[in-house]
Amino acid sequence: MIFKQFYLGCLSHASYYIGSNGEAAIIDPQRDVQQYLDEAETHGQKIKYIIETHSHADFVSGHVELAAKTGAEIVYGQRANTKFVTHKVKDGDELFVGDVKLRFLETPGHTPEGITIIAEERGGDTLVPIGGSSVKSSFERRSDIREDKSVLAPKMFTGDTLFIGDVGRPDLIGSKGFTAQQMGEMLYDSLHDKILKMPDETEVYPAHGAGSLCGKSLSKETWSTLGEQRRFNYALQPMSKEEFVKIVAADQPEVPAYFPKSAAKNLEGSASLADLEKPKQLSTGEIDGFDGIVMDVRVSAEYGAGHVPNSINIGLGGQFASWAGTLVPIGTNIAVVAETEAQVDEAFTRLARVGHESVKGFILIGDCTAEKKRIEQVSVEEMSELTQSEKYLQFVDVRRPAEHAAGHAVRTLNIPLDKLPKEFGRLDPQVPTYVICQSGYRSSLGTSILENAGFKNVYNVTGGTAAWIEAGLGVESGGAAACVGNVGEVY
Q1: Is residue 490 part of a domain?
Q2: Which domain holds residue 360?
Q3: pLDDT per residue over 97-132, tens digit each?
């Protein structure tokens, strides 16, 4: 078996390549599919199946384009209402990729059509390591846990049903027609009646890791064993179905506005990236009069030092696509401000991954002759002094409520970034406003939103809460219910 995990950090998304004897299957592909074609060519294999564990809401999949380029069948659970030719599978169905058997379980809960795939290879062949994969144990025989040395530990691809450290949230638009309570009950049954019936040595490969909004407590780890999850995953501890539904539903982050559109697009099929209109280079005058959102993709320090008026700062260095989908309505015309054309190309691809297909133009900051605006950057030490000496200031923490509750700088008001445009009324635009997050990424975006809304004196606190705590400055906790388990990696 040839096996590789592709991990896309900016969307916290994992996809998978399984190959054997000239055939291959791709599980949960991202929108830009060339890497899967390259992998198949490297090993002389033909992609036979493209398997979607469910209709993803947080990104646009490349399944339709990949099928068009390879002739592979697209596989979904039988409850998926797809608008294209699909191989529908149900409980117990099996497909073969060379010597690898793929067995399917219907595991609704995160979505009604969700499936889990169990991959097993028998016959004593050695797993072939793939350079660059982060899944080390997948290339080793599990002789310590099996008496039969010719049998490898099964691999279980759980989609958004079971994560490492968490389970899929039951309240997304993919469950339309069902209540979160009903979906939570289905999720409990899927876990306890199906997934947890597998042996402890089963390797678990989910579709997402820390930072994804498809759960609330995802681990930074991108794979685990089922035995480890039985011991350490809060949602798999002994509890009644009623307790499970309550604890899983609590403290979930707000559903981003783009999720329903991505889920629908994945069932309808999306255009090839190559067919999307590419952005054209704009003049300073065209940027000044642009009808849409001007998006500066540079790092926060560069944005603060000088930026195009009325632009927002969503840097490529963080969860760029997720925030672009959350704060900019899908279908909005976008113009990109960047340092280089390579950054423009990267922004174009990453925006398409969440369904933004109207990137109309770009300008390089060095070519923009307009008078620039500035956002002053303030260190945590300077900010700490201000909280003690200045009575009239607003100190806004734009992290999620659970992050804020776990520990925050003194005098902060928590307004999560995704809610900031709706909650300007809680702030006075005439009072100096300082914005902090975890590292300085989200706060820079927050300052740009406030500046565009007419706030007069806006400042970005560099280094964020992480730097504040490291400097030993005053910290408070509480104020909101904390998530169970790890908050996850955020910026």
Answers
A1: no
A2: 276-367
A3: 999 999 999 999 999 999 999 999 865 444 433 333
pLDDT at residue 175, as a whole number: 54
What separation, in Å, do the N-terminal and C-terminal C-alpha atoms of the chain show?
37
By percentage, how much of the chain surpasses pLDDT 90? 84
Q: At what angle do helices 441-452 and 320-327 cross, to 10 degrees?
A: 30
Please determine, for residue 315, whether its predicted confidence score (pLDDT) is greater than 90.
Answer: yes
Domain boundary among 334, 367, 400: 367
Domain co-membership, 403 together with 353: no
State if pTM tops 0.70: yes
Do residues 113 and 79 touch, judged by C-beta distance below 8 A? yes
Q: pLDDT confidence of 226, banded at 50, 70, 90?
A: very high
218-244: b or e for each residue (b if 16 or more CB lie within 10 Å)? bbeebbbbbeebeeebbbbeeeeeeeb
On whether both 296 and 234 belong to a single domain, the answer is no
User: Do 193 and 210 fall into the same domain?
Assistant: yes
pLDDT score, position 149? 36
Dist. CA 477–CA 225, nearest whole Å: 34
Q: Label residue 145 by pLDDT band (50, 70, 90).
A: very low
The pLDDT value recorded for residue 144 is: 34
Residue 320 lies in a domain: yes
